[in-house]
Design brief:
This protein has about 120 residues and is mostly helical. About 80% of the residues lie in helices and about 0% in strands. The protein folds into 2 domains: about 1-65, no CATH class; about 80-115. The chain has helices at about 1-25, 30-45, 55-60, 65, 70-75, 80, 85-115. The longest helix has about 30 residues, at about 85-115. The radius of gyration is 19 Å and the shape is extended.
Length: about 120
């Protein structure tokens, strides 16, 4: 019964996000909006972690399974991607390096700030 309660809570936030995404004048993923609202509800203590912990632990444990459809889509669209594979790999490598550098600089800044305080 606890699983159904947690599933209803998560679906309620998801569907709320999808509803808001439908009325926005621009395209934005409803799942992210719902996730943001769930984060806000947890941060503001409107919702307790125990209210969603069991189901969210399950989703995190099996997260790789949820990426299978995306991987299959990429593989089935390989003929479209094949002509631009070099630029795609270049962008992936460059964006990875940029994200790693930004993360390193942010962590360095936060560690120095924590030591200073």
């Amino acid at each position: 019964m606890i699983i159904f309660k947690q599933l209803n809570i998560i679906f309620a936030f998801y569907l709320t996000g999808e509803g808001i995404a439908l009325i926005l004048p621009f395209s934005f993923p409803g799942g992210l909006i719902g996730l943001f609202f769930l984060y806000c509800a947890l941060s503001l203590k409107w919702l307790h972690l125990e209210d969603v912990k069991l189901l969210s632990d399950f989703f995190i444990k099996y997260m790789a399974f949820f990426f299978i459809p995306a991987g299959v889509s990429i593989i089935s669209s390989y003929s479209l991607i094949e002509s631009a594979i070099i630029p795609i790999i270049g962008v992936l490598i460059l964006s990875t390096i940029i994200i790693m550098a930004i993360t390193a600089l942010t962590v360095d800044y936060l560690v120095k700030r924590a030591e200073h305080d």
